[in-house]
Specification:
Blueprint (H helix, E strand, L loop, with lengths): L6 E4 L1 E2 L8 H7 L5 H7 L2 E5 L4 E4 H5 L4 E5 L2 E4 L9
Antiparallel strand pairs: 1-6, 2-3, 3-4, 5-6
Length: about 80
């Protein structure tokens, strides 16, 4: 994991929850509380690696994710999240 982010991406909110795969939910089950996971289900980011909008939970489970700070995601830009 890189210390310096290559990308800084804004986190956006949607009115309806986004679909997240069961694998991602299983990965995050121990790291994130259920209430927090529900709230994050409404958020998305525009991934600069795969050039698509992805749910924040998939971004959080990605290997390039460094941190989330003040409504922005810091990304190493190494590889994108797994897309269906």
């Amino acid at each position: 994991m890189a210390d310096q982010p290559k990308y800084s991406i804004k986190v956006l909110k949607k009115e309806k929850p986004l679909r997240v795969s069961k694998e991602v939910k299983e990965i995050l089950k121990g790291a994130v509380s259920g209430k927090m996971m529900k709230n994050m289900g409404y958020e998305l980011v525009s991934c600069p690696v795969i050039k698509e909008e992805v749910p924040f939970l998939e971004c959080f489970a990605c290997g390039s994710f460094i941190r989330r700070f003040k409504g922005e995601v810091h990304c190493a830009g190494l590889k994108g999240p797994k897309v269906k």
